[in-house]
Design a protein that fits this description.
mainly alpha, globular, 445 residues
């Protein structure tokens, strides 16, 4: 009886959006009010900006651990620095998404790139811990990837949304390849501060591109615009009830929980990766740049090619299970890695699992909320990552100090194995998948 009731609630939640909604073909024509050529230009400039954002982020991210070491920051304080970044982003993600829903994606992206430029500029000026911590505070609004996802969600139809969101990862992957390499070279021949200033300059260029080529609002439909106008105003951005209401949608709550559980072991490992690379594998700034570029290449190939092919052939539930299986295998390899080339092998299943899970969950989350709340929902999705990053540095430092490097792989393997078993036998997971499939079938008919 309980499972039947849950199924009815989930189907009703999804079905309420399906009633009176235009077909994908009609949405492709009317959609956001942009012509086909305008949509292509907006998508192109969005991808260029994400490549720029990723390049700048990874330029400074690659230089950050070496800058902190140069300034005499120990691993514990470095963990506090990472936690500060995560907490600030956690608070800003949902509010940034709601700001974009109310005032348009162009304004949101200008804020995001401005915050990035300020953060990198402060990092470049840092000569002590005070400015290092201060440089993390602008990340409250540094959500450029979320802004790009909002644009793609607004102007794409639901049948191709997962592929469109996945291709953003292709552009992000370009930045992951170029950024670490540039950061490593600039740090090697100049200084860590120069890397930060280069990232700041790139962010300023992105602001100009956004103002010139991104329309003020990419939301579709007159109704959405009117509702935004009625609710607009400084206080509506901080409407906690409107944000929290989205968490009462059963499918959304379940997917966010899965994302948090799966992402926790990965976040813990990522928070300590730079320290592990330096101390255990003796990787210097230049070689670290090559490693991060390799990871970016793997991510780019999977996002640009693999996700689109898989989402067209298989349903969301099956892809989620496959993602968990890939994570499980990747963590098993990680537990036994003891030389540098082992890391190059290990990141392949972890990258495949991560790209499938993040794309499928993000796409599905935007389908189960009203069109004028997609930005807020994407913000909540990003917030789940920020929650993980908030606790990861502290937990990762303790694991590395007391249990050693292999513990990262062991914990990830255990967590994903247990989740795999749950998904195989859980009625809740089957109910969620069935509800999403019924909704997809309604919109295709």
């Amino acid at each position: 009886m309980a499972d039947t009731a849950e199924s009815t609630v989930m189907e009703g939640t999804l079905g309420s959006r399906g009633q009176g909604q235009e077909s994908p073909e009609k949405e492709a024509t009317s959609g956001s009010g942009l012509s086909a050529s305008q949509r292509k230009l907006v998508v192109l400039m969005t991808h260029i900006n994400i490549a720029m954002y990723s390049t700048c982020f990874w330029i400074q991210q690659g230089a950050l651990p070496y800058l902190t070491k140069k300034l005499g920051v120990d691993p514990v304080v470095y963990g506090y620095l990472q936690t500060t970044f995560a907490v600030v982003q956690l608070c800003g993600g949902p509010l940034f998404g709601r700001f974009g829903d109310l005032f348009g994606t162009r304004s949101a992206l200008v804020l995001a790139f401005s915050a990035a430029a300020l953060s990198y500029g402060l990092l470049g000026m840092a000569e002590g811990m005070s400015l290092l911590f201060l440089s993390r505070l602008p990340s409250f609004l540094m959500h450029s990837m979320q802004g790009a996802q909002m644009i793609v969600t607004d102007i794409s139809d639901e049948s191709s949304r997962a592929d469109a969101l996945g291709k953003l990862g292709l552009s992000y992957g370009i930045g992951m390849i170029v950024g670490p390499f540039l950061g490593g070279q600039v740090t090697k021949y100049f200084s860590e501060q120069h890397s930060a200033y280069l990232a700041m300059a790139g962010s300023l260029v992105s602001i100009v591109l956004v103002v010139l080529f991104i329309p003020a609002n990419t939301k579709s439909g007159k109704k959405d615009s009117e509702s935004s106008k009625d609710d607009s105003g400084p206080s509506s951005v901080f409407d906690v009830k409107a944000i929290a209401k989205l968490l009462t949608i059963p499918v959304a709550a379940y997917l966010l929980l899965v994302r948090t559980i799966v992402g926790t072991p990965l976040g813990i490992f990522q928070s300590m990766f730079s320290v592990i690379a330096m101390d255990r594998f003796n990787i210097g700034p230049e070689e670290n740049g090559y490693l991060m570029s390799y990871i970016g290449m793997s991510n780019m190939v999977m996002m640009g090619l693999g996700v689109g092919i898989l989402t067209k052939r298989y349903n969301e539930g099956l892809l989620l299970k496959w993602a968990i299986y890939m994570f499980t295998f990747g963590y098993l390899l990680l537990a036994g890695a003891n030389v540098t080339w082992h890391i190059y092998v290990t990141v392949i299943p972890l990258t495949i699992g991560g790209t499938i899970m993040n794309t499928v969950i993000s796409s599905t989350l935007t389908k189960v909320v009203p069109p004028d709340s997609t930005g807020t929902m994407l913000g909540l999705s990003m917030a789940s990552n920020s929650i993980i990053r908030t606790m990861s540095p502290t937990v990762g430092g303790l694991m590395l100090g007391y249990a050693g490097y292999p513990s990262f792989g062991i914990v990830g393997f255990v967590v994903n194995t247990l989740l795999s078993v749950y998904m195989l036998f859980s009625q809740t997971h089957a109910t969620v998948v069935a509800a999403v499939e019924r909704q997809n079938a309604k919109k295709e008919s």
